[in-house]
Amino acid sequence: MSYDADTLVRRQCLLDAYSLTDCPNCHTTLTIANPSSGAGQAILCTLHNEGGVQPDLDILPLLTEESYLKAYPEDRKCRAFLEFCREGDVEAIVGMLKDPDPSDIEDEEDGHPQKPIDEVLRYQDPVGEMQSGLQAAVQAGSREVAYLLLLVASELDLQQFPPEVFQEAAALGVMREDQTGKVDIRSLRDANGKSAEDLAREMGGIWTGWPGRGWLVA
Q: Total domain count for the chain?
């Protein structure tokens, strides 16, 4: 799924309207320059829980995520999908694929209809530089998730897949459906215009040999 410029501007304006970076009581600005990257912002806190004390925990990403879901609760399943891609959780993604079409089902938590699985697979993160699930899998170094997404949401020639991919897919009960009229996930670019192949080329390592074969770009 992609967004036009006007949609992105409207979404960003709505996100900016939330007082994520202000104290709800005194309205003091809580953000500082991100100490780990030197770029962007962070909200640091000390977390006390059963695991002990966690100092200098940046909670700004969590606040941003919650703010986004408050504004767009219909994207909750899409956000979960991206997290599964980033974690390399093949079984969780397969669980989503096997769920009934959620387009007419209301989310139990917030009562909002969720997007159908075809849109979930092609979702791009508006608060994460428009990263797609395939790009998230590449960044996470998960070839298993990458193969799964290419199998169910691209037009990559089936002869390009190793036999073990089909064996695993069969064991999981997953197969490719008709892709006519659907966006090939290999064609999705992030906010910087990069494809999953561009990211794989930059990372190297586990992705050596993938760029240049059409596996990650269309």
A: 2
Share of the chain above pLDDT 70, in %: 73
Indicate whether 85 and 45 sit together in one domain: no
CB of 134 within 8 A of CB of 143?
A: no
106 pLDDT above the threshold of 60: no
166 occurs within a structural domain: yes
pTM of the full structure: 0.72
Distances (CA, A) of 65 to 59, 72, 76, 104: 10, 10, 10, 24
Residues 154 and 51 in one domain: no
**pLDDT score for 61:** 65
In this prediction, residues 66-73 reach a mean pLDDT of: 74
